[in-house]
Amino acid sequence: MKTIIVGTRQSALALTQTGQVVELLKQLAAEHGIACQFEIKKIVTKGDRILDVTLSKVGGKGLFVKEIEQALTDGDIDMAVHSMKDMPFELPEGLVVGAIPKREDARDALITRGYRSLDELPQGALVGTSSLRRASQLQNYRPDLRIESVRGNIDSRLRKLEEENFDAIMLAAAGLHRIGWQDRISAYLPPEICLPAVGQGALCIECRGGDAFMLDLLGRFQHEPTALAVRAERAFLGRLNGGCQVPLGAYASVSEDSSGEAGPLLTLTGMVGTPDGVTMLKESASGRDPEALGLLVADQLIAQGAERILAEVRE
Ligand SMILES: NCc1[nH]cc(CCC(=O)O)c1CC(=O)O
User: Fold this and answer.
1) Which of 54, 86, 137, 177 to mutate to test the pocket of ligand 1 (most atoms within 8 A of CB)?
2) Which of 72, 82, 98, 231 could form a disulfide with 290 if both were Cys (CB 3.0 to 4.6 A apart)?
3) What is the number of the ligand 1 atom nearest to the C-alpha of 170?
4) Phi-psi label, residue 59: left if phi above 0, alpha if psi -120 to 50, beta otherwise
5) pLDDT attached to residue 121
6) In the chain, where are the structural domains located?
7) How far does residue 29's CA lie from ligand 1's centre (Å)?
Protein backbone atom coordinates (compact mmCIF):
# COMPACT_ATOMS: atom_id res chain seq x y z
CA MET A 1 0.00 0.00 0.00
CA LYS A 2 1.15 3.52 -0.81
CA THR A 3 2.44 5.47 2.22
CA ILE A 4 2.10 9.26 2.07
CA ILE A 5 4.56 11.08 4.34
CA VAL A 6 3.14 14.36 5.62
CA GLY A 7 5.55 17.02 6.87
CA THR A 8 4.48 19.43 9.60
CA ARG A 9 5.81 22.00 12.01
CA GLN A 10 5.57 21.05 15.67
CA SER A 11 3.39 23.87 16.97
CA ALA A 12 0.02 22.91 18.45
CA LEU A 13 -1.73 24.56 15.52
CA ALA A 14 0.39 22.91 12.84
CA LEU A 15 0.03 19.45 14.37
CA THR A 16 -3.70 19.88 14.79
CA GLN A 17 -4.45 21.16 11.33
CA THR A 18 -2.22 18.56 9.72
CA GLY A 19 -3.99 15.84 11.70
CA GLN A 20 -7.39 17.18 10.68
CA VAL A 21 -6.44 17.29 7.00
CA VAL A 22 -5.03 13.75 7.14
CA GLU A 23 -8.29 12.46 8.67
CA LEU A 24 -10.31 14.07 5.87
CA LEU A 25 -7.94 12.75 3.22
CA LYS A 26 -8.25 9.23 4.66
CA GLN A 27 -12.03 9.43 4.32
CA LEU A 28 -11.75 10.82 0.82
CA ALA A 29 -9.31 8.08 -0.24
CA ALA A 30 -11.61 5.41 1.22
CA GLU A 31 -14.64 6.86 -0.63
CA HIS A 32 -12.79 6.72 -3.92
CA GLY A 33 -11.23 3.34 -3.35
CA ILE A 34 -7.70 4.78 -3.27
CA ALA A 35 -5.46 2.56 -1.17
CA CYS A 36 -3.04 4.63 0.92
CA GLN A 37 -1.88 5.28 4.45
CA PHE A 38 -0.39 8.38 6.05
CA GLU A 39 2.65 8.95 8.19
CA ILE A 40 3.33 12.26 9.95
CA LYS A 41 6.87 13.63 10.10
CA LYS A 42 7.71 16.61 12.33
CA ILE A 43 10.12 19.25 11.07
CA VAL A 44 11.67 22.14 13.03
CA THR A 45 11.78 25.29 10.90
CA LYS A 46 14.00 28.32 11.18
CA GLY A 47 10.93 30.38 12.08
CA ASP A 48 10.33 28.16 15.11
CA ARG A 49 13.91 28.54 16.28
CA ILE A 50 13.95 32.33 16.19
CA LEU A 51 10.44 33.19 17.32
CA ASP A 52 11.83 35.77 19.72
CA VAL A 53 13.58 37.78 17.04
CA THR A 54 11.57 40.28 15.05
CA LEU A 55 10.64 38.07 12.14
CA SER A 56 10.00 40.96 9.78
CA LYS A 57 13.62 41.98 10.17
CA VAL A 58 15.20 38.62 9.43
CA GLY A 59 13.46 37.47 6.31
CA GLY A 60 9.73 37.39 6.80
CA LYS A 61 7.08 34.81 6.46
CA GLY A 62 8.85 32.24 4.35
CA LEU A 63 10.78 31.12 7.41
CA PHE A 64 8.09 28.73 8.60
CA VAL A 65 7.69 27.18 5.21
CA LYS A 66 11.17 26.95 3.66
CA GLU A 67 12.55 23.88 5.42
CA ILE A 68 9.35 21.97 4.88
CA GLU A 69 9.55 22.82 1.19
CA GLN A 70 13.13 21.58 1.09
CA ALA A 71 11.95 18.25 2.56
CA LEU A 72 9.28 18.09 -0.16
CA THR A 73 11.79 18.81 -2.91
CA ASP A 74 14.19 16.21 -1.49
CA GLY A 75 11.44 13.59 -1.41
CA ASP A 76 11.65 13.20 2.39
CA ILE A 77 7.96 14.05 2.60
CA ASP A 78 5.13 13.90 0.04
CA MET A 79 2.84 16.70 1.18
CA ALA A 80 2.65 19.51 3.70
CA VAL A 81 -0.22 21.46 5.23
CA HIS A 82 0.51 25.17 5.66
CA SER A 83 -1.54 28.10 6.85
CA MET A 84 -2.16 29.94 3.60
CA LYS A 85 -1.27 33.25 5.16
CA ASP A 86 2.25 32.00 5.91
CA MET A 87 2.89 31.14 2.26
CA PRO A 88 5.28 33.37 0.33
CA PHE A 89 3.89 34.64 -2.94
CA GLU A 90 6.02 32.37 -5.11
CA LEU A 91 6.53 28.65 -4.66
CA PRO A 92 9.93 27.03 -5.31
CA GLU A 93 10.51 25.39 -8.68
CA GLY A 94 8.91 21.95 -8.78
CA LEU A 95 6.38 22.48 -5.99
CA VAL A 96 2.69 23.25 -6.44
CA VAL A 97 -0.46 23.94 -4.45
CA GLY A 98 -2.17 20.55 -4.61
CA ALA A 99 -5.32 21.73 -2.85
CA ILE A 100 -6.93 24.61 -1.02
CA PRO A 101 -9.54 23.17 1.35
CA LYS A 102 -12.61 24.99 2.67
CA ARG A 103 -11.77 28.11 4.61
CA GLU A 104 -12.29 28.47 8.35
CA ASP A 105 -13.43 31.80 9.84
CA ALA A 106 -11.17 34.44 8.26
CA ARG A 107 -11.66 37.08 10.98
CA ASP A 108 -9.31 38.26 13.65
CA ALA A 109 -10.36 37.67 17.22
CA LEU A 110 -9.81 39.67 20.38
CA ILE A 111 -8.88 37.76 23.51
CA THR A 112 -9.27 40.00 26.53
CA ARG A 113 -9.10 39.96 30.27
CA GLY A 114 -12.80 40.24 30.92
CA TYR A 115 -13.87 42.78 28.28
CA ARG A 116 -16.58 41.69 25.86
CA SER A 117 -15.72 43.84 22.85
CA LEU A 118 -13.16 46.17 21.34
CA ASP A 119 -15.38 49.11 22.33
CA GLU A 120 -15.40 47.96 25.96
CA LEU A 121 -11.62 48.15 26.31
CA PRO A 122 -10.81 51.06 28.64
CA GLN A 123 -9.04 54.21 27.40
CA GLY A 124 -5.36 53.54 26.84
CA ALA A 125 -5.69 49.77 27.21
CA LEU A 126 -2.63 47.70 26.29
CA VAL A 127 -3.13 45.37 23.33
CA GLY A 128 -0.58 42.76 22.27
CA THR A 129 0.08 42.10 18.62
CA SER A 130 3.19 42.02 16.51
CA SER A 131 1.29 42.28 13.25
CA LEU A 132 1.60 45.69 11.59
CA ARG A 133 -1.68 45.01 9.82
CA ARG A 134 -3.54 44.48 13.09
CA ALA A 135 -1.79 47.40 14.78
CA SER A 136 -2.62 49.75 11.92
CA GLN A 137 -6.33 48.94 11.86
CA LEU A 138 -6.67 48.86 15.63
CA GLN A 139 -5.01 52.26 15.98
CA ASN A 140 -7.16 53.65 13.18
CA TYR A 141 -10.34 52.59 15.01
CA ARG A 142 -9.08 53.27 18.56
CA PRO A 143 -6.14 55.73 18.52
CA ASP A 144 -6.06 55.70 22.33
CA LEU A 145 -5.02 52.04 22.59
CA ARG A 146 -1.39 51.20 23.29
CA ILE A 147 0.07 48.43 21.20
CA GLU A 148 3.00 46.23 22.08
CA SER A 149 4.57 43.32 20.29
CA VAL A 150 3.78 39.80 21.47
CA ARG A 151 5.44 36.86 19.74
CA GLY A 152 5.31 33.13 19.81
CA ASN A 153 2.89 30.37 18.95
CA ILE A 154 -0.79 30.71 19.83
CA ASP A 155 -0.31 28.94 23.17
CA SER A 156 2.57 31.13 24.30
CA ARG A 157 0.78 34.31 23.22
CA LEU A 158 -2.25 33.35 25.29
CA ARG A 159 0.07 32.74 28.24
CA LYS A 160 1.61 36.19 27.74
CA LEU A 161 -1.86 37.78 27.94
CA GLU A 162 -1.93 36.67 31.57
CA GLU A 163 1.74 37.11 32.40
CA GLU A 164 2.62 40.38 30.70
CA ASN A 165 -0.26 42.62 31.72
CA PHE A 166 -1.93 42.96 28.37
CA ASP A 167 -5.62 43.91 28.45
CA ALA A 168 -6.12 42.03 25.21
CA ILE A 169 -4.27 40.28 22.42
CA MET A 170 -5.31 39.65 18.83
CA LEU A 171 -5.17 36.28 17.10
CA ALA A 172 -6.71 34.73 14.03
CA ALA A 173 -10.04 33.13 14.92
CA ALA A 174 -9.26 30.20 12.62
CA GLY A 175 -6.28 28.99 14.61
CA LEU A 176 -8.21 29.10 17.88
CA HIS A 177 -11.16 27.31 16.32
CA ARG A 178 -8.96 24.58 14.91
CA ILE A 179 -7.27 23.80 18.20
CA GLY A 180 -10.59 23.93 20.04
CA TRP A 181 -9.91 27.09 22.02
CA GLN A 182 -12.82 29.14 20.67
CA ASP A 183 -13.95 29.66 24.29
CA ARG A 184 -11.03 32.03 24.75
CA ILE A 185 -12.40 34.45 22.13
CA SER A 186 -13.98 37.58 23.62
CA ALA A 187 -15.02 39.20 20.34
CA TYR A 188 -14.71 38.77 16.60
CA LEU A 189 -13.53 41.77 14.65
CA PRO A 190 -15.61 42.35 11.51
CA PRO A 191 -13.71 43.01 8.26
CA GLU A 192 -15.07 46.58 8.31
CA ILE A 193 -12.85 47.20 11.36
CA CYS A 194 -10.03 44.75 10.74
CA LEU A 195 -9.42 43.19 7.35
CA PRO A 196 -7.68 39.83 7.77
CA ALA A 197 -4.32 38.90 6.32
CA VAL A 198 -4.32 37.55 2.78
CA GLY A 199 -5.33 33.90 2.97
CA GLN A 200 -6.13 33.99 6.68
CA GLY A 201 -8.26 31.05 7.74
CA ALA A 202 -7.39 29.05 4.65
CA LEU A 203 -4.94 26.17 4.32
CA CYS A 204 -2.55 25.35 1.53
CA ILE A 205 -1.62 21.76 0.80
CA GLU A 206 1.65 21.65 -1.06
CA CYS A 207 3.12 18.75 -2.99
CA ARG A 208 5.54 18.08 -5.86
CA GLY A 209 4.30 19.14 -9.28
CA GLY A 210 5.37 15.79 -10.70
CA ASP A 211 3.60 13.65 -8.11
CA ALA A 212 0.58 12.39 -10.06
CA PHE A 213 -0.74 10.30 -7.17
CA MET A 214 -0.82 13.25 -4.76
CA LEU A 215 -2.22 15.62 -7.38
CA ASP A 216 -5.07 13.22 -8.08
CA LEU A 217 -5.94 12.74 -4.41
CA LEU A 218 -5.57 16.42 -3.47
CA GLY A 219 -7.46 17.58 -6.54
CA ARG A 220 -10.57 15.96 -5.04
CA PHE A 221 -10.05 17.89 -1.82
CA GLN A 222 -10.03 21.39 -3.27
CA HIS A 223 -12.85 23.78 -2.28
CA GLU A 224 -13.35 25.94 -5.38
CA PRO A 225 -14.96 29.02 -3.76
CA THR A 226 -12.11 29.20 -1.23
CA ALA A 227 -9.54 28.73 -3.97
CA LEU A 228 -11.06 31.58 -6.00
CA ALA A 229 -11.10 33.91 -2.99
CA VAL A 230 -7.50 33.09 -2.11
CA ARG A 231 -6.37 33.59 -5.71
CA ALA A 232 -7.87 37.10 -5.71
CA GLU A 233 -6.28 37.97 -2.36
CA ARG A 234 -2.89 36.62 -3.39
CA ALA A 235 -2.97 38.47 -6.70
CA PHE A 236 -3.51 41.62 -4.63
CA LEU A 237 -0.59 40.65 -2.39
CA GLY A 238 1.68 39.96 -5.35
CA ARG A 239 0.95 43.29 -7.01
CA LEU A 240 1.85 45.13 -3.83
CA ASN A 241 4.89 42.96 -3.36
CA GLY A 242 3.61 42.08 0.10
CA GLY A 243 5.86 39.08 0.59
CA CYS A 244 7.36 40.37 3.80
CA GLN A 245 5.48 41.52 6.87
CA VAL A 246 3.68 44.70 5.87
CA PRO A 247 0.51 46.50 7.03
CA LEU A 248 -1.68 45.09 4.31
CA GLY A 249 -4.92 43.13 4.47
CA ALA A 250 -7.45 41.73 2.03
CA TYR A 251 -10.56 39.66 2.07
CA ALA A 252 -12.54 38.23 -0.84
CA SER A 253 -16.07 36.93 -0.47
CA VAL A 254 -17.69 34.66 -3.02
CA SER A 255 -21.36 34.93 -3.90
CA GLU A 256 -23.37 31.71 -3.80
CA ASP A 257 -25.10 32.70 -7.00
CA SER A 258 -23.07 31.25 -9.84
CA SER A 259 -25.73 31.67 -12.50
CA GLY A 260 -24.29 31.62 -15.97
CA GLU A 261 -21.03 30.09 -17.08
CA ALA A 262 -18.82 32.95 -15.99
CA GLY A 263 -18.49 31.55 -12.46
CA PRO A 264 -19.30 33.07 -9.09
CA LEU A 265 -18.94 36.76 -8.38
CA LEU A 266 -16.06 37.75 -6.10
CA THR A 267 -15.92 40.90 -4.01
CA LEU A 268 -12.47 41.88 -2.82
CA THR A 269 -11.62 44.54 -0.24
CA GLY A 270 -8.00 45.47 0.30
CA MET A 271 -6.26 47.83 2.70
CA VAL A 272 -2.85 49.37 3.23
CA GLY A 273 -2.21 51.56 6.25
CA THR A 274 0.55 53.17 8.22
CA PRO A 275 1.48 51.23 11.38
CA ASP A 276 0.20 54.12 13.53
CA GLY A 277 -3.22 53.89 11.87
CA VAL A 278 -3.28 57.54 10.89
CA THR A 279 -3.43 56.80 7.18
CA MET A 280 -5.73 54.03 6.06
CA LEU A 281 -6.32 53.28 2.38
CA LYS A 282 -9.14 50.88 1.56
CA GLU A 283 -10.80 49.87 -1.69
CA SER A 284 -13.33 47.29 -2.87
CA ALA A 285 -14.30 45.91 -6.25
CA SER A 286 -16.21 42.97 -7.69
CA GLY A 287 -15.45 40.70 -10.59
CA ARG A 288 -15.28 37.11 -11.77
CA ASP A 289 -11.63 36.80 -12.71
CA PRO A 290 -9.74 36.46 -9.40
CA GLU A 291 -6.32 37.59 -10.65
CA ALA A 292 -7.74 40.58 -12.53
CA LEU A 293 -9.74 41.57 -9.44
CA GLY A 294 -6.71 41.37 -7.15
CA LEU A 295 -4.67 43.55 -9.51
CA LEU A 296 -7.54 46.03 -9.89
CA VAL A 297 -7.95 46.60 -6.14
CA ALA A 298 -4.17 46.82 -5.69
CA ASP A 299 -3.94 49.39 -8.50
CA GLN A 300 -6.70 51.45 -6.88
CA LEU A 301 -4.65 51.56 -3.68
CA ILE A 302 -1.43 52.29 -5.56
CA ALA A 303 -3.17 55.26 -7.17
CA GLN A 304 -3.74 56.58 -3.64
CA GLY A 305 -0.14 56.15 -2.54
CA ALA A 306 -0.02 52.59 -1.16
CA GLU A 307 3.48 51.97 -2.48
CA ARG A 308 4.85 54.98 -0.64
CA ILE A 309 3.41 53.68 2.65
CA LEU A 310 4.82 50.20 2.06
CA ALA A 311 8.23 51.54 1.07
CA GLU A 312 8.46 53.48 4.33
CA VAL A 313 7.60 50.41 6.40
CA ARG A 314 10.16 48.25 4.58
CA GLU A 315 13.04 50.58 5.30
N1 LIG B 1 1.23 34.17 11.61
C2 LIG B 1 0.99 32.99 12.36
C3 LIG B 1 -0.25 32.29 11.99
N4 LIG B 1 -0.38 31.66 10.81
C5 LIG B 1 -1.63 31.10 10.74
C6 LIG B 1 -2.29 31.38 11.92
C7 LIG B 1 -3.64 30.87 12.26
C8 LIG B 1 -4.79 31.30 11.44
C9 LIG B 1 -4.84 31.01 9.99
O10 LIG B 1 -4.83 29.84 9.56
O11 LIG B 1 -4.97 31.96 9.22
C12 LIG B 1 -1.42 32.15 12.73
C13 LIG B 1 -1.67 32.66 14.07
C14 LIG B 1 -2.37 33.99 14.13
O15 LIG B 1 -2.13 34.88 13.33
O16 LIG B 1 -3.19 34.17 15.05
Assistant:
1) 86
2) 231
3) 16
4) left
5) 98
6) 2-103+202-222, 108-189, 229-314
7) 28
